[in-house]
Amino acid sequence: MATAGHRSPKLTAILVGDDPASAIYVRTKTRTCEGLGIDSETIELPENVSTKDLIGYIDELNTNKGVDGILVQLPLPSGVDTEAVLDNIDPRKDVDGLHPHNVGLLVQGRPRFVPATPGGIMQMLDRRGIEIEGANAVIIGRSEIVGKPMASLLMHRNATVTVCHSRTRDLPAVCRSADILVVAVGRDAMVTKDFVKSGATVIDVGINRVAARARVEDIFGKHSDWEKFNQRGYIVVGDVHPEVEEIAGALTPVPGGVGPLTIGMLMSNTLDAARLRAASTG
């Protein structure tokens, strides 16, 4: 991907601890970078790393002219101050769009880097021809990574947006008003048919491992893939119950739905960061 006079873009990820989902995401990111000609590096740190030491690694990457994008894989261990870590990433290299400066630009409707998962979802809605303007959009989950930026993006496209959380009253009734329903809570098969009106577009951001045989049978019934369960010891399921497919106009699969969109948006942000660097250095 290098052009005349310019090196290839480079993305550096920091992976703290041994969270399986985080490790899978970083490995997928690395393979995608290789396929696109983007240089990739992963810095693996122990779970007991201090906030100070982690910020030290970020400071080195901030000043490294050979690095265009910095990704700190979340969630971080409970002993690390996540806000302090994200605040110390150079906003020009913050390809996850989580630095306060980039969050502010997003809220104003002029983002530099759109957070990868919400950005990927917006691209998917556009490519599928899902009408956003005037639509009722409901988001379950108000995280900094998905829920809040998703709300901003939809509002700037003239959707009427409701953000739900653990204190929302009569959650199923609120969700049934949605033309577009985005679910990002990390609870396996939480959203059932009772939450969804016929024909709604349902975006399942969750990815959960279900290791209890009784719960697998409860979710999938006679369609349970016991061969896969016995091989792995778990089944991967989203936040949306499979039965929702019967009434939804569209439902993203898990796995293989939102995940690839997230990776694609991260690659796009990395290229944008490289262009910013190239423009600033002439």
| Low-confidence region ranges | none
Provide the residue-averaged pLDDT.
94
Give me the Rg, rounded: 20 Å
Across the major sheet, the strand order is 5-4-6-7-10
Question: What is the CATH C level class of the largest domain, in words?
Answer: Alpha Beta
Main sheet overview = 5 strands, parallel
Category from helices, strands and their pairing: alpha/beta
What tags apply to this protein structure?
282 residues, globular, Rossmann fold, single chain, 39% helix, 2 domains
Structural features, described:
This protein is of the alpha/beta class and about 280 residues long. It has helices spanning about 20-35, 50-65, 80-85, 100-105, 115-125, 145-155, 170-175, 215-220, 225-230, 260-280, and strands spanning about 10-15, 40-45, 70, 135-140, 160-165, 180-185, 200-205, 210, 235, 250. The protein has two domains: about 10-105 and about 260-280, Rossmann fold (3-Layer(aba) Sandwich); about 130-250, Rossmann fold. The chain contains ten helices and ten strands. The strands form three sheets. The protein has a five-stranded parallel sheet with strand order 5-4-6-7-10. A three-stranded parallel sheet has the order 2-1-3, with helices on both faces. Helix 1 (about 20-35) packs across helix 10, helix 5 crosses helix 6 and helix 5 packs across helix 10 (about 260-280). The chain starts with 9 loop residues before the first strand and ends with a helix. InterPro entries: Aminoacid_DH-like_N_sf, NAD(P)-bd_dom_sf, THF_DH/CycHdrlase, THF_DH/CycHdrlase_cat_dom, THF_DH/CycHdrlase_CS, THF_DH/CycHdrlase_NAD-bd_dom. Homodimer. Keywords: Amino-acid biosynthesis, Histidine biosynthesis, Hydrolase, Methionine biosynthesis, Multifunctional enzyme, NADP, One-carbon metabolism, Oxidoreductase, Purine biosynthesis. Pathway: One-carbon metabolism; tetrahydrofolate interconversion.
